[in-house]
Specification:
This protein is an alpha+beta fold. It folds into 2 domains: 118 residues, Gcn5-related N-acetyltransferase (GNAT) (Aminopeptidase); 145 residues, 3-Layer(aba) Sandwich (Aminopeptidase), CATH 3.40.630.30. Helix content is 30%, strand content 33%. Strands 1, 2, 3, 4, 5, 6, 7, 8, 9, 10, 11, 12, 13 and 14 form a 14-stranded mixed beta sheet that branches.
């Protein structure tokens, strides 16, 4: 039996995730329970009697696309059947909400055979570039552009830039932009004539910093704004004795990789495949 997620099931799903090997989570900065509590995130649970045997949850549909953010099935029982049953119900629900593309970032190999059976196929890889301690390239902002810190009231402007700069399904929903800004160690905006035209967000982990998001309005790209944002952030982190940084981008996005290499980033071999399916 498949049922929609309800808050009263939070302990059951937490227990299933804790006890199961076959778990996939791609929730970025959120805890599972907090993420599932959002009514915008479709989530379905599979039951055998009163025992929870699987769960499937997706991000909020955005411009006809979404991501599978949570996949978990019990180590006991038929995993293929549980996933197939959940996906049949989820795909029907997503079609009703206008979703045409569903993506999944693969972090565990156990999922591959199940995804093939459902009709998913590999379309991209997310690559990681890392920057070791080295001198920072000085890149001032172009004339008429100033850099400043981001404020909570900027979220709508950041979301608009994000949606203009990235195609579906690589865009972030507003709630994710807000949370990313909230957890950022450094968050900077490029402003021209009083309007934000680019932004960058950075988090800090044990060994250094991570460039979590970088976006510039299409009409302002190619002017050096992205370079100015990165240079500014590297200097800010250096003053805090943080000299290393990582960043993720698509393997096919050669333009962004060229930008990062300019600042000393290099591929470190930590790549994750992205699989997708078209709902027709």
């Amino acid at each position: 039996m498949v049922r929609p997620y309800e808050r009263r099931y939070r302990h059951a799903i937490r227990d299933l995730i804790f006890r199961s090997y076959r778990v996939h989570t791609h929730l970025d900065w959120q805890e599972v329970e907090d993420w599932l509590d959002s009514p915008d995130h479709p989530a379905l649970l599979a039951w055998v009697g009163d025992r929870l045997v699987g769960a499937l949850a997706a991000s909020a549909p955005l411009n006809s696309a979404c991501w599978l953010r949570l996949v978990v099935v019990s180590d006991f029982g038929d995993a293929g059947r549980a996933i197939s049953t959940l996906w049949q119900a989820m795909s029907e629900h997503l079609r009703m909400r206008g979703v045409r593309t569903v993506a999944l970032l693969i972090s565990r190999d156990w999922m591959l055979s199940h995804l093939r059976n459902l009709g998913f196929h590999p379309v991209e890889e997310i690559v990681t570039l890392a920057r070791a301690k080295q001198p920072v390239l000085d890149v001032p902002p172009p004339d008429g552009v100033v850099l400043r810190l981001i404020y909570p009231e900027d979220i709508d402007a950041l979301t608009a830039i994000d949606h203009a700069a990235f195609p579906s399904p690589w865009q972030m929903e507003r709630a994710d932009v807000r949370l990313a800004e909230k957890v950022s160690s450094i968050a900077t905006a490029a402003v021209r004539d009083g309007a934000i035209i680019g932004y960058s967000l950075y988090t800090v982990y044990v060994d250094g910093a991570h460039l979590a998001r970088l976006a510039v309005m299409p009409q302002a790209q190619g002017l050096g704004i992205a370079s100015a944002l990165i240079s500014d952030a590297l200097h800010r982190f250096a003053r805090r004795s943080i000299f290393t940084m990582t960043v993720n981008t698509q393997a096919s996005n050669k333009r962004s990789q060229q930008l990062y290499r300019r600042f000393g980033f290099a591929l470190n071999g930590f790549d994750l495949p992205v699989w997708m399916i078209d709902l027709v």
